[in-house]
Every structure is written in structure tokens, then in C-alpha cells.
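Hi there. Long-time user, first ticket. I'm pasting a complex I've been working with (about 995 residues overall). I'd like to know whether the download I got is complete or cut off, because the file seemed smaller than I expected. Thanks.
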Amino acid sequence: MRNVESLVLASCVVVAASVAACHPSAASRPPVEPVVAKERAHAFGPEDVDAALREAWKRAGVVPAPRADDATFLRRVTLDVTGTIPTPEAVTAFLESRDPDKRKKVVEALVASPAYAEHWATYWDDVLMGRGRMGAAVDRAAFHEWLKSAFAAHTPWDRVVRDLVAATGRNSAIGDEGESAPVNGAVNWTLRFRDAPQDLAGNASRVFLGVQIQCAQCHDHKTEAWKQDDFRSFASAFLRARVEQVSPKTMGTKQLVLSDEEKVPPRLAKNADLAPVAKARPRGLDGTDLEAGKDTRRSLATWMTSPENPWFAKAIVNRMWGHFLGRGFTDPVDDVRPSNPVVLPEVLDALAKDFVAHGFDLGHLVKTICATEAYQLSASAAAKPDPENKLWARFHLVPLGAEEMLNAVVRATRIEDAAQKAGVQRTEQLRAQLDKQMGFLFDVDEEDDTPDYEGTVSQVLALVNGNLVGNGSRAVPGSAVAQVLASSASDEEKIEKLALQILSRKPNELERSLWLAYVSDPSRPRAPAPNAPGPRGNPKRGGGGPLARLDGKPTATDPKRAAYEDLVWAWLNSSEFTFNH
Amino acid sequence: MTILKRRDVLAAGVGLWLSSWLERSARAEEIARTPGAAKSVIVLWMNGGPSHIDTWDPKKGKVAGPHKAIRTRVEGVSISEHLPGLANIADKLAIVRGLTSKEGNHARAQYQARTAYPPNPTVIHPAFSAWMSKRFGEPKTGLPAVVSLGGPSVGPGFFGVQHGPFVVQPPGLMPQNVGYGPQVDDARFASRMRLLDSMEDRFAQSTGDPKVEGRRALYAKADRLMHARDLDAFDLEKESPSTRAAFGDTPFGKGCLTAVRLVATGVRYVEVTLDGWDTHVDVFGRTKKLMGVLDPAMTALVTELEKRALLDQTLVVWMGDFGRTPKLNANDGRDHHPAAQSAVLAGAGIKRGIVHGETDAEGAKVVKDPVRIQDLVATMAKVTGLDPADTASSPAGRPIALANDGTPVASLLA
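Hi, the file is complete. Here it is re-exported in full:
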């Protein structure tokens, strides 16, 4: 608490008081519901953000980009809110709509859609669990389901985090026979760290409070405010979780039950690294004393998610802003400290207060962010931003993550329809295999905004030669390109249809003429047979994978068809497709 | 074809980038070479934690189990009877018997072995391989600086994905996606790339965002790799049947032969994985099988490197997650045992025919010349001409030293 100015000091007192007030009876109750502070109901809407940003732009001599056009906005917001690109029908309807409120309405519809829950479950699954392999203590699928139902129900954020931090119950139904007690997928997060609860503390602090307390795990740092004692006291609050195995040891996931202990279990207390943590009195990061006993995790959860907590609301607002705008009020979003100052702290504060006043409703936050002028600016060279574009005067290009990339390619190419036509029976299985491939290739850290493009040669090779884009851009029966080619439309109409399908927009005049010329070029050579040897010994190119079944069919049967395939291939490989812009 | 393609690429505007890139990598090359230092590193990664007692540090009595020890070409040094080939070339090896650490969890130990640091949620450390990539740059051939055969290995951390390993899975095959898809040939590929370039030109212009140029640079790099002459290094058909046979007809054996071919082209770091060492069950049966794969492959690796005059410019390291318990568990297996483990080094800058360190009669504790993981990493750094104390700043502004607080093990150095 010596670290973060007087604001924190002041709120310490409030927090201490509220914790004391709720604690006598806390033992017998589930975590306390927050009192939505109606009397302090605070409205800080998009217009207020706009006013503050315009002021900041003026001060910094920044010229903002022009507003993004409708098609760009729709693609952007569909990706950000639901993790995929819009269907061509949605694009057409949006472009044709004359409703002045159509942008606002489409955001509301997306927040209410099932894809919203799936996308945010995947997002938080990645953030909390990472992409690494989990041990037998974790049922990843049960965790994902738990997240999904929380987002589908639009559970308030403070509630989600309380339920996660203080979770108790059984981790998995794998191996259940007949009627069994219900499963609480949330416990899997704590179980992931059961051998290293200090890492759980670090993860919780970083993700939910935006504070990298774990830097102080090993020793005090001269330059930063957190001390080793702060870390130990906070980490101590995570040490009283009790883990019991309920199913006999099997090969797969173990069935475990998570509950609370009065004292730090011996297996942790005896660990040399953890001994000083086990001895420390559990405290919040601002010094608030927490219960030491069976209520520790609950009192921790209550402290963490309190409307008065100085970090909690700001951390999620910063993270969400960073997700939507491509850069947070800090960069990275989960590292707030004196030497990494917040851009426009008053805007972040006001948005956080507004979020709390609206009952920690993430949907409300999403709608606010998406309605701001900054979010609706184009990624245009016409802007004159500050050096690192910290003030969002131009929309930051954000590379699509693994999930978004796969969703986008699948929707753009209709590869699943093509695979089905070719006799691939189980599309869920196909999807899972593709998911694994993509996850491996496109494991990007989206909490970081770097000015350079961070990518690998393997990613590029997969897009250039791999069989998802490779077959997705071929006119195999059922694919988007095959369907468009089968119609009796003119070339110009075909190009427009495909552009709507893949780029989620209509071509402009210049593109129309360039692309029309490309598909109409009479001098185009004939494409080789499917099994013709390439420069690197096709067909031994490796990576057969789930779509290899489509490889053998000749599709570029005449130069024009081949040209259309080329066009689709180039679109799928373009920066326009692979960035959210 | 390659020349024609290059001209296409140049015409499309990537030329400037390409020439500055070539210049930069040439410069990196100059800085890089300390005379006599290893140019490349091959790590044979024993995934799962190899039992030291059943391989390089055999014991007598109950601990030993059915495996016998055999004498090696080095006076007074014995290793497992299932490593006869390696026993025969032990005069070229430095066996480290006093390796020790505290990390008994796979993920944590694997991370530490590659980065010299235990995991810490606030910073993702670059692996040693990433330091090689960062400090020495990319080879001029178009091949990647770091290759993992059978990976995934450990990544580049905050150095960024461009310094991460190029993963080939499984070893012995051409890398995935380096050849064209169906019905694509040189002419069609070139036409597609021109079409793509014109789209990228317009998008780069309209957005003014440097990320677009960064992405195009990566496309140029992928194009170079696809058409690199040295990509043949992955093609084992170019080797004689007898050479291939010497390495063994296994993915690991093929990986070892590929590693030899890769370092010959100037690839900086190659890791070859042999998985299956997490022997909680039937340790004797399973280690015997694994040694049947390891012995011919590693023996042939060292022998071929020497034959091709590459051994004195290549550092070979055998290592894994941790050692295993002297005591057998109920399933005739051995559990995780980080306190005592073995590693083996050979090649450039390394003494030949020595054993460094010693464990007690059971193989439970290191009793002489302990070597910490970070000391091993520091030794690897030293041998390649890197400074173990070289630091880089983490995203949070903390200085991160290459080898943590490790120091090179002087008695291993030639």
C-alpha cells in the first residue's frame, strides 16, 4: 500500500470497513453479492469518451483518421464481439440498411448472439489456462463449458471472478456412471496451479487486477513499489485450497474435489519455496487483512471483486479496451505500474466507474466501447497519430488469433461444406483437428501491441501452401468459389459475390477492373494436373491432414476457373483478410 | 526459375526490404564468429526425463536392476550395456554426472533446461536457441536459424516469434507446406504472388501501418525458404542407404541425420526429440527400448559429424527434463528426480573422453562437482561464443541474463 498514491490509501479504509462488515456471517454464506451502488450511479457514455479523446488529440496535435465505412465496421465488430467474419448476407443487409442506428443495433444483436458466449469462453479459456498441455488434474472441456454458460447468461463480471476464485466442487464428469453430483467446471482453474499456488496468485493478480505482483516473488525491486512481503501476503490467500481425489486413478483426467482447509496443507507448508508464503498472513494487495482459515478464498474473492477495489474494474475495462482498440490504456493491458503509466487515466477511471455502476455488465462495456468514435475510426494513412498511436487516432491493425483465423477461413471458403461433399463424415472432428493445427500455428499473444508484425514462416507456409487455404480456395464441389462459379452470373457479379463472401465488402472501381482483367486474361497458362510433381517433390509435401481427401480432384479445369481460384487464394493470404482492421 | 521469381519479388517492391535484410544478416554473421567457437548446436532432447542410473551413470546392487554396465573406450568409465556404440566412442564425449536442479515438474523442468530459468508468470524467457538466433541472425541460405525436429521445444519468449524454432514434425520428412498445393506450379505460383503483391501494395498504402510491410517481409522469407537450394538438407533420400541405416530406421535416427545435414548448411541450432523417457512404469523394459533407438542414432551423429569435418564446429548436447529416482515404485518404474541427472556434451570446445561430477552409490545425490542447469546453459553459450552474462531487457524493463546466474563449467572446456 506504500505504492499507489493516496487514492489507494483512501480506498483501503473503505475496503477494510466493508470486509469487516460482511465477515462475521460470511462463513455460513456463499460469497456476498455486491451491492450495486445505485446512489453513485455514474454514467460515462461513448460521447464522454469522445469528448475526452478529442481534447487529448487536440492537445497532442493529432489528426484522427476518417470514420470507417459500414463494411469495415461490420467486419471489425463481428470479429471483435463474436470471433468471426460476417456472412455475405449480413454484409449486404447492413450495407442496404438506412437505419441511422444500425451500428448500435448490430452490436446489440452480436452481444445477444450465441457466438458471443462461445467467443468469450474461448478468449478467457486461453487467458486463464494458456495453450500448453494440462495435467490430469484439469478437465479443460468442463472449464470451457463453465465459461460458456457464464457468458451465455451474461453473468456480471464480479460474479464470474468470485465464482472462479472461491470455486469449490468437482472438476469433471469424465468416468461418471449414472446419476452423479453436479460438476463445477470453474474449479479447474485453481486445480491447474495446485502444485504451484504462488503461480495461481500471480495469474489472478495479473489477469484480474492488472498487477504483476509476482515480480516481487523473489526479491524486492528498487524501481517498483511492490515488496516481497506484499507478494507473500497475497499469495498466502491461495494456499488453503483442499484437493481430494474421488475417482480411482485412471489414465485420463482425474476426478478431484476442491474445497477449503483451515490451515495450509502440509504438502505446501513443507515446500521450501512456499514456507515463507504459508507463514504470511493473508492480505489483499492494498494491505486489507483477509480471513485466515476456511473462509480465506471467499474473503479474497470478496475483496478482489468489491466495487471499492482500486484495480478490479479498471483491469477489465483496460483489457476490453485493448481487445477492441488494439492497444489498452497501458501496454500490455495486464501490467499497470508506476513505470508503465496509463494513457488518459481519467478516461479509464470514468469508464471503470461506469462499468461498476452498471453492475459489472460486460455487455454494457462492449456496447459503450463499440459506440465510441475511436473504435469507429478507419485504419487509414490519412491520420496523423502520435508516435506509437497511443491515442488511437488511427485504428490499430490486429492480426487475427487462431480461433478468429480458423472461423474466418471456414466461413469465407465454406470448406466444411466441401469436405462433407467429399465424404468427410464428422465435421466436428474435422473442426477439432483444424483447431489444433491453427492453435499451434497462430499462438499469438494478443495482450501485447507491438509495432512490428509478429509472425512465423510456418504460419505463412500454411496459408500459402497448406490445405485449409489451399483447398478452401479451390473450386471443389460445395466450396464458396465452386458455388459462385456454378451460377450464371456475369464475371463482374461473380467477383462481387466472392468479395462479399471473403473480404466482407464490395470491390471498389479500381479493383473491379483489375480483377476482371485478371480472370479474363486470355494468355493465362493451363494449370497442371493435381498430382504433377512440384519443385519440392509433391505429393510428398507432408501435412496430409483432415482435408487431404480434397487434394486429388482437378478443379482448375480451364484457365478462367484457375484465375478465380488464384483470386480467392490471394484474398485469403492478404493482410486485409488476416488482420482485423 | 528462382532468379525469375526473385525479379518478380523485387519488382513488387519487397526489394528494398530484402537487400537491407541481407545486409543485416551478413553483419550479424560478422559479429558472430569468435575464432574456434562452435557455429552450431545440436541438442538431443530426451523428453520425459531420462533415467540417469539406467543410461550414463550405472550403479551396482539393487538400484541397478537387470541392466548391466559395460566398459567404454575411456579407462575406468562404464555406461549401460544398451549403449554399446556410444561406449565405443566415449573417448569423444564428456559425460556430466553431477547435473542437478529443483524442478520436478515436466513443464517447469523443460522450460528451465532450455532457458536457464524456472518459469515465472511475469516474463517468458527466451530459450538459449533464441539467443543464438537473435545474436547470430539468420543463415544466408534461406533456411531458419533454429529447427526443432519432432518439437515443439521451448520458444523465443519475449524475443518474439521470429526467433522461435521452425518445427518439423515428424523428423525425417520434408517440412510441412514447403511444396505447392494441388494444381499449382511455378508459373501459377508466381502469378498468384504478383496478384497478392498488388493487393498488399494498396492495403499498405491505404493503412500506412508498418505491420503490413512486416507481414510482406515474412512472405518473402517463406518464399525464399520454399525455393532454397539447401532445403534439400531435409531430404534424406540424398544420403546413401548405408548412411541412413547407421542412424537407424526410426524418427529419432532420421532426425539425427537431418541435424547433421542442417548444421552443414549453417543452421544455428537443431533440437531432435526422443520422447518416452517418463518411465513411471517398467523402467527397465522401456529404457532398453529407448536406448536401442538412441545408441545407433547418437553414435552415428557424432561419427558423421567428425567424418564431415563438422564436429569441431558443432556442439552436441544430450539432455532431458530431469533424472529418475533410485528407488523403484510399485509399477517397476522410477519417478521424477531432479536432484541428480546426467547430460553429455561433445564436439566444438569440449574436452574429450572425460566424466565430470559424481553421484552417490545409489545415484540419489550429487557428491562431487555439481553442475546446475544454468551452468550447463552458460557452458553452451561460452562454447558458441556468446556471453553467458549477455542481457536483454524484458518487456517490463527487467534485465534478463542469457544464462541466469550460471557460469561455464571450466573443466568441460577444451
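A couple of notes from our side: Confidence is low (pLDDT under 50) at residues 1-40, 537-543 of chain A. The CA atoms of residues 303 and 359 of chain A lie 16 Å apart.
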